[in-house]
Give the backbone structure.
Amino acid sequence: MNKPLKSLLLASSVAAILAAPAISTANSDVEKLTQDPANWATWGGNYAGTRYSELKEITAENVKNLQPAWTFSTGVLRGHEGGPLAIDGVIYIHTPFPNTVFAIDQKTQAILWEFTPVQDADVTIPVMCCDTVNRGLAYGDGKIFLQQSNTVLTALDAKTGKRIWSVQNGDPKLGMTNTNAPLVVKDNVLTGISGGEFGVRGFMAAYNMKTGKLAWKGYSMGPDSDTLIEPSKTTTWEDGKVTPVGENSSLKTWKGDQWKIGGGTTWGWYSYDPKLNLVYYGSGNPSTWNPTQRPGDNKWSMSLWARDADTGAVKWVYQMTPHDEWDFDGINEVPLIDQEVNGKMHKTIVHFDRNGFGYTLDRETGELLIAEKFDKSVNWASHVDMKSGRPQVVAKYSTEQNGEDVKSEDVCPAALGSKNQQPVSYSPQTGLVYISGNHLCMNYEPFAVDYTAGQPYVGATLDMMPAGKDVLTGAPDGTTNLGQFTAWDSKTGKIAWSVKEPFSVWSGSVATAGGVVFYGTLEGYLKAVDAKTGKELYKFKTPSGIIGNVNTWSFEGKQYVGVLSGIGGWAGAVVATDGDKVIAQMQEKIAAETDPAKKTELEKALLMKTQEALGAAGAYASLGKLTKAGGVFSVFALPAAN
């Protein structure tokens, strides 16, 4: 080929490449969808996980006129956590086990397709702690991603429901399950693992969204090669500054090989900052619940993480509750908020932990900025030392100091936490974060327990009761409320207002540009309150208790609000499972079984069933008089104008 022709062809090729449209990624697809408030395309409404909508047809003035628009029965009777996705005129909803997915046409409310995965209930359900919940779906690249209870991650064609690929994320026979909502980031789908009460070692995993191939996997504890910690680059907050964690920072805090069954599972919610390319999440409690069996800080359980989205490399990590003695599982969501703290603008994450402290950290560096109680009844620690970042434990409430087989009484909060997994919302209009919370204390008695793969590895008994203290002052007030809905200023660490609820608020909230915040109650009420004052503006009783997240979107120019009803979860499991009756039936079945292998499986299921409420049954005993099991998706809107 002559040189002029070769040069001409090369120039033409370069010009064609420059003129071609950029190849869209799942990341840009999701970002574009979330920037249009007509959609609700990820669990938190956006990558920041703020659960805020710019929609404002429904306002503080007219929300009193809200009406049910349509409903849909899921056909499943267990706890319905998570919420709907609304994408380009289609609603995608999910159920707890067996994890059925429905695609519903918004115009006709007709089912476009449904998908129910094949799962072995006898293997999976006995190792699911605290009900058979699932926290939702993810969307990207024209696919719906379902994280099944049996740990299988499945990609479905969003238009047809046809399964494109599946990948096994864990082993249920070892106690591994999945309850989290996945998150699509760039070309990967991020997911975690459940099973801390079975001695599972937690991790975050990224799978290629087109093929299901594992891209990276980072554990919560173990050697640096497993955690993807870089000793000289990964930092933590220590001695009043951001400091490299050093070599094998996790291994040094465990006795022997205890880290291999150390918990730190990752079944919560994940956020992502596209500009920093960092993924944020929390890791859960260490195994076992008996602290005397695992001396040391047990890093990096109970921690907040920032990982590189492409490689999983850890940018920074901060442990909230070193050597957890109370099951203050650290998986709660981490919304990303840019705000001024102490006179300086920061890109922050905000986190309300089960331990009762609200944290604000710089999400670029991991600097600790705020750590204050968001429920003043919290007594297990007096405060968080801002220099070390460590909570200052009150000796009276230390279950380790009090010892095995000793009941530590009136510890606040209970293991349910001052807030559990139900995600908060944030309004840039008010600058407040809205917290669906609990208001309980507990008695906690640790005992020695041996690890057996696939068997419960709890090692504590507990019972729970109302805190009976004022959320703002901590003073005894004789109240019996088990829950509250609280507005919090994450710039100052101060409570703005708090509304008492008779039972825990187990529903995720949503804040809107209309000045309204929506949440649900365990009795089944959808409620709307004024974002500035907390004044109740509207409530409607849905068919069952609400533990799902309230989401909002628009279709053909009209704003809708939707929520899954279906009592269950930790707080509502006693109603969803009809506890005492089911246990009696299981005991009869075990007595009659002659096959030793089947008898063992039934005994394992009974053990998990009796521990399923894990102390909550007594506190929530009266809930069964106010609501019953039943999965229903309820959609609300303002009446049509005359």
Summary: The chain has a mean pLDDT of 92. Residues 227 and 608 are 30 Å apart (CA to CA).
